[in-house]
Structures are given as structure tokens and as C-alpha cells.
Amino acid sequence: MKQLRIGMIGYKFMGKAHSNAYRALPMFFPGALQPEMAVLCGRNGEAAREAADRLGWPEVATEWKEVVARDDIDLIDINAPSDTHKEIALAAAKAGKHIFCEKPLALSLQDAREMLAAAEAAGVTHMVGFNYRFSPAVKLAKKLVESGRLGQIYHFRAWFLQDWILDPEFPLVWRLQKDVAGSGSHGDLGAHLIDLAHYLAGDIREVIGMSETFIKERPLAENMTGLSAKSSKDAPKGPVTVDDATLFLARFENGALGSFEATRFAAGHRSTNAFEINGSLGSVKFDFERMNELEVYFTSDDEDVQGFRRVLATDPAHAYSEAWWPPGHTLGFEHTFTHEMLELTSAIREGRQPEPNFRDGVKCQAVLEAVERSVDERRWVEISEM
């Protein structure tokens, strides 16, 4: 296979990010399996046509089942709202298509397990969209952990803070409706933190959490695009059925302790996706708002120069950096998706499963639901219970 023909279901926030990644991949990674943007699918034909023209898709469809059934499509890219993931993925697996699905993988752990089982039974490549793994600075943190340079890991603390729904008059977008989104800040933001924890610190054994919905009702939205929306001045209100903020503690299988915070009510934080890892020989700190930097501390440094050092992860020694710009010329949010698609296309070419795949999505969903059970039952919950 020299080219990978893609049918993309969805075209807004993540559709734009994926399209940009597919277009950049041949330019910066010419040796990769080349993606061919074949058809974009959306329910609103007029809006889908406008998006296709803008994003570079030659064909438009309004019925995803037709796209999945086409013999000339190799990969189904699912970035529509979360309540559509399962049905599309199951159909794609049955049709023998490779699958890329945005996170969270599904609305429930049971659904996620069904998606994994279907993909494995079909023998197709499957990947879930945890793009933050693909920041060069995060890859450096992974390298330091795996090489033992941080020693035994004691703590993993993470927080994902946003403020885009702080205004109580912000409309009731789909991300605030449980039947569409599955959960609120927990499943949207916390899922990324959980995946990073699994990637960097290992599997989680047990959790205990708490959550809150600060604004119980919001004006009904007239239209939504990405993280923005509008409503009329006198729009009726509907209930918010997801969490606005969720915090939880965790114990890892390796004995490390973890703390996690996800909220959309942290004024001044546009997208603070951050973590700190503390080990017996050192620590690292990362904040995606400064995504090219990793703060690194080693206990072995001489006492008079001990302290966190800022490492700019743009030198050729860092993952992906040789493909982009000269050292010191920084990368952005969009580059994580290009790296993600590089992993996907490489896995398809090499006949292996990419990382992260649906198994990682299931693991993440198990922790998400364990936290929710913990909140409901006000107790520690082991992941093995799920």
C-alpha cells in the first residue's frame, strides 16, 4: 500500500486538526505512508461542503454508512460527537476498514470493550486520539522515566484547567449533555490526563474522587462550532447533565500515588494541561501552554547548581524535531496531530497496532467510570471492579 484513502466522519474542531495533519504529513515526513483525503462526511450537506472546500477534501457525503461501505476507502476517521463513535466504529470494523477514533473512545466502558472486540475480530488497525502523547517534550519525559534516570516513581500529579464555560450564559453545547458527550470535564479533559498517566507512570490500581456541576442550567444553543456557540437573547434553558469539575486521587500498580484535576471553571486558564512526575532521582514538569519545554531536575547535580532546568525540546535529539524547523523554532498544537497520524500510518504499513490504540481507550474508560462510581458511592474503587 502506497496511499491510504481516508473517509472522515466529522469536520469541526477535530476535523480541522486531522485535515491539517493529513496535509502536512507528506511535506514533513515524505517517507511515511501517504494519506489521501478522499471524502468528508457530515449531516449538514451545505456546511460539510463548505468545510470540505476549506480543508481540502474533494468529495462530500451526508450518510456515514455510505462512506464506510465504499470499496475505495481504507481508513475511517471518526471525530464526530462521542455518541456516534460506537456505531460507526462497529460498522467500520465489519467492513474491514482501519479505524481512527477520537477520545473518549465511547460513552461507556461496555461500549468501548465492544469496539475493541470488533476491531480485533476484524483484524484491522485501530487507534484512539490521545494527541498529547505526541509532544516532543512528553516523549522526552517518557524517555527519562523508561531509562531510569528519574529513579523509582513516587508521584504523578496532573491538572487540565480551562475556563471557556465560566460565563453562566454560555450556551448548552453538546459537550454539556451526558447523552451525547458521556461526561463533562472528566471525560473530555480528564481522559487526556489518565492516558498520560498510563503512558508515563503505569497502570492505575484504585481511585477515589469528587465532582461538581456549578451551573445547573444554560441557554439552549442555536449553533455550535468547536468550543464556541451562540444562543438567542431569550433562549429557553436546559439542564447541564455532566460535571463541570472532577478531582480524584489514585494509587498506581507500581505503588506511586497520583492526583488529578479537570475543570472548565479555572479563570485565566485557557488550556493548562500539565503534569509533574517525582522520582527518587529526579523530577519533570510539563505544561502544554508551554508545550516545547520540559522542566527537569536531577538529584545528582552538584548542590550549588541544583534546581529545575528548562529543556527546550526542539533539538534533533528530541522526537520528531529533525522533520520540522532548526533548533529553537517551536512547534504548536497542530503538530501533535501530524505526529499522531505518522504513528497511525506507520503502524498500518508495518502491520502492527499503533499506540495508543483501542486497548488504551478501554483502559482509560475503565478509570473514568471507576472515578464516577467512586463519586456516587463515596469510596475507593479498584479498577479491577470495572
UniProtKB/TrEMBL annotation:
Pfam families named in the record: GFO_IDH_MocA, GFO_IDH_MocA_C3
Domain Gfo/Idh/MocA-like oxidoreductase N-terminal positions: 4-130
Domain GFO/IDH/MocA-like oxidoreductase: 139-284
InterPro entries: Gfo/Idh/MocA-like_OxRdtase_N, Gfo/Idh/MocA_oxidrdct_glycsds, GFO_IDH_MocA-like_dom, NAD(P)-bd_dom_sf
Keyword set, alphabetical order: Oxidoreductase
Coiled-coil annotated residue ranges, if any: none
Keyword Oxidoreductase on entry: yes
Gene3D superfamilies reported in the protein's UniProt record: Dihydrodipicolinate Reductase, domain 2 (3.30.360.10), NAD(P)-binding Rossmann-like Domain (3.40.50.720)
GO MF annotation terms: nucleotide binding; oxidoreductase activity
Highest taxon of the lineage: Bacteria
Key word Oxidoreductase present: yes
Protein known as: Gfo/Idh/MocA family oxidoreductase
Annotated organism of origin: Paenibacillus oralis
Organism taxonomic ancestry: Bacteria, Bacillati, Bacillota, Bacilli, Bacillales
